[in-house]
Each structure stands twice: as structure tokens, then as C-alpha cells.
């Protein structure tokens, strides 16, 4: 087994090197980078987002022939990191791992946010995404979305769902579900996903829409039951669980996504080099295997495609926040 794993790693590294060699002519148009690159991760060290950043940067730095230095800047729900990244020189030596909270749900719901998720950043590329999964307590007599909605409507004052906090993706995804399915389920916000899961497994709340990585251990243990996932296709890690699209919830493609941005005004040549090398790293089977730990599927995009993705996601959550009257103070 050890020899097989070693061979797989060697082959993956060789493939990555071969891809780098074949693209050298196009990348040689600029000498960038000539020194280490600072990569801001807007959370404290440890946890899924940090692991994703370190996994990508370790391989990305080898392709760029310069180390990428992880700079964890937690606090303020990502506001501090976003401000620092936006104010950095637009020279390609400061990048940030933007994700759905910092560039989507927070700008959609928080008043007086001290940065603009579109104007203050240059999109570089998508890393990948993981779906949210609708889970219920085993006592809930529903095996699919239709049965769950019927259950809610029959018990309009006694069914509640938890979230990791007001304005979080777990909150907004369920509010989108409520709106689409006309379901009067009551919201109970928590300070983080862990206490919400504790109450869900204890039966104090009946449902939740967590990210797949957080939900998988509890689904596999049987302490919660998965009913549906977001996204355009079924998750490779929950192949028997249908998407909401399959139940007729059109456009319900919300994902917990991660990508890379730089300060506004990054030169086009630098953006192109960063995007092409990032996509080269994401094409590695070995990296895909590593990312599966956090249930993240790599998603290669051009910088323009990623920029349009951010705008569309921000628009989705801003529209929902206005319709559901969700507005938070900073």
C-alpha cells in the first residue's frame, strides 16, 4: 500500500511538472514572481478553509518556483483580511483566499461593510466548492424533500432549524429553501456550526443546511439523515442523495466555494499567469484526493468566469436578503 501511494504521488508530481514544462513558453512572458507571495487566509489556523489554502499553496508555489507564505488573518468575519488584501499593492505579491462568506453572504447581509467585494478585488480563479446538505433529526418522518415540506406544514409552530449564525450560508440556504418551498420553519441561530449540530443530534431542533464536510461524520454515524444536497449534480460522497434540482427546486445551486483574489488593478499578465498555474495545480488527481477530505471538488475557471461567478452569487444572496428582510449590523 505504501509503495502504491508513493508511486501515485511521484506520478502526480511528474504530471504536474510536465504540465508546467509544456506551458513555459506562454508563462515566460513575464518574470513574475521573483520573490515569495503572501497568501491571506481570512480565518485562524486550523479548520477546513485553512487546510484548503495550505494544500493549494504548497503545490502552487512549486509551479511558480516561489514559496507562498500563508498569512492567517481571522477576526471580524473576514473583514480584517479583506481590508488588508484590498489595500495591498497591486503587484501580485499579496493574494487572498476569498470564499462565499467574505465575497457573497456577508456583503449581501451586513450594513456598512468597509470593502466592496467587486470593486476592491481582482478575481484570479476558483479553487472549488462543496455543497450544502439538508439534514434532519432521525425522528423526523420524512425521507425526501416533499415529505419534509409536508411535515413542516402540518407542524407550522413546532419545527425549527439551526444555523451557524445570522447571515451565514447555513442560514441563507435554508431561507432560500423556505422561500422556494413556502415552508414556515422557524430559525434558531447559533454561535457556530458545532453547537447547532449538538442540538440537532439532541432533537432540540429538527433540521439544518450545513456544508457537506461538517455533516458527513454525523450522516455516516446515523445521528442525522441527509435528504438533499445543493448544486447542479449529486455529490460523489453522497451518491444516493438527490439534489434539490431533482425535486424541482430550479437554480438551487448554492455552494460553499473558495477562490483566489488579489487587490483591484492587478496587471493582466500577472492575472493570466496566476490563473493558468492555479488551474494546472487543480488538474492534479493527487490534489483532488487531498481536497476530498473537506468534500471540495476542484472547479477550474478563467479569471473572467470566476469574476462573473462572484457577481452572480452576490446577486443571489443580496436579492434573498432583501426579500427576507435579513440585514445585520457589522
Give your account of this protein's structure.
- This protein is of the alpha/beta class.
- The protein has two domains: about 10-130 and about 255-325, Bordetella uptake gene, domain 1 (D-Maltodextrin-Binding Protein, domain 2); about 135-245, D-Maltodextrin-Binding Protein, domain 2 (3-Layer(aba) Sandwich), CATH 3.40.190.
- It is built from twelve helices and eleven strands.
- The protein has helices spanning about 1-20, 25, 50-65, 80-85, 100-110, 145-155, 170-180, 195-200, 210-220, 270-280, 285-290, 305-325, and strands at about 35-40, 70, 95-100, 120-130, 135, 160-165, 185-190, 205-210, 225-230, 255-265, 295-300.
- Strands 2-1-3-10-4-11 form a six-stranded mixed beta sheet. Strands 7-6-8-5-9 form a five-stranded mixed beta sheet, sandwiched between helices.
- Strand 6 (about 160-165), helix 7 (about 170-180) and strand 7 (about 185-190) form a beta-alpha-beta unit.
- The chain is globular, with a radius of gyration of 21 Å.
Quick description:
This protein folds into 2 domains: 189 residues, D-Maltodextrin-Binding Protein, domain 2, CATH 3.40.190; 115 residues, D-Maltodextrin-Binding Protein, domain 2, CATH 3.40.190. The protein has a 6-stranded mixed β-sheet. Strands 7-6-8-5-9 form a 5-stranded mixed β-sheet, sandwiched between helices. It has 12 helices and 11 strands.
Amino acid at each position: 500500500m505504501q509503495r502504491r501511494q508513493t508511486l501515485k504521488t511521484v506520478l502526480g508530481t511528474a504530471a504536474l511538472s510536465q504540465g508546467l514544462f509544456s506551458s513555459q513558453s506562454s508563462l515566460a512572458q513575464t518574470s513574475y514572481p521573483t520573490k515569495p507571495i503572501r497568501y491571506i487566509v481570512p480565518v485562524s489556523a486550523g479548520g477546513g478553509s485553512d487546510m484548503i489554502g495550505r494544500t493549494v499553496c504548497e503545490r502552487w508555489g512549486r509551479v511558480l518556483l516561489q514559496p507562498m507564505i500563508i498569512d492567517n488573518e481571522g477576526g471580524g468575519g473576514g473583514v480584517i483580511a479583506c481590508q488588508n488584501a484590498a489595500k495591498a499593492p497591486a503587484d501580485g505579491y499579496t493574494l487572498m483566499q476569498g470564499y462565499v462568506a467574505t465575497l457573497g453572504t456577508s456583503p449581501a447581509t451586513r450594513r456598512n461593510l468597509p470593502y466592496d467585494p467587486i470593486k476592491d478585488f481582482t478575481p484570479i480563479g476558483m479553487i472549488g466548492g462543496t455543497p450544502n446538505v439538508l439534514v434532519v433529526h432521525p425522528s423526523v418522518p420524512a425521507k425526501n424533500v416533499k415529505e419534509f415540506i409536508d411535515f413542516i406544514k402540518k407542524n407550522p409552530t413546532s419545527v425549527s432549524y439551526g444555523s451557524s449564525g445570522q447571515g451565514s450560508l447555513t442560514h441563507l440556504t435554508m431561507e432560500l429553501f423556505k422561500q422556494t418551498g413556502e415552508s414556515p420553519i422557524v430559525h434558531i441561530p447559533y454561535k457556530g456550526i458545532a453547537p447547532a449540530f449538538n442540538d440537532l443530534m439532541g432533537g432540540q431542533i429538527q433540521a439544518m443546511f450545513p456544508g457537506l464536510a461538517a455533516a458527513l461524520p454525523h450522516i455516516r454515524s446515523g445521528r442525522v439523515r441527509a435528504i438533499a444536497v445543493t448544486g447542479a449534480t449529486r455529490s460523489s460522497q453522497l451518491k444516493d442523495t438527490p439534489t434539490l434540482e431533482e425535486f424541482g427546486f430550479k437554480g438551487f445551486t448554492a455552494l460553499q466555494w473558495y477562490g483566489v483574489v488579489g487587490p483591484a488593478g492587478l496587471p493582466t499578465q500577472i492575472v493570466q499567469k496566476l490563473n493558468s498555474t492555479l488551474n494546472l495545480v487543480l488538474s492534479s488527481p493527487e490534489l483532488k484526493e487531498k481536497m476530498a477530505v473537506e468534500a471540495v471538488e476542484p472547479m477550474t475557471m478563467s479569471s473572467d468566469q470566476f469574476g462573473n461567478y462572484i457577481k452572480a452569487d452576490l446577486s443571489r444572496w443580496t436579492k434573498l436578503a432583501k426579500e427576507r428582510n435579513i440585514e445585520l449590523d457589522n
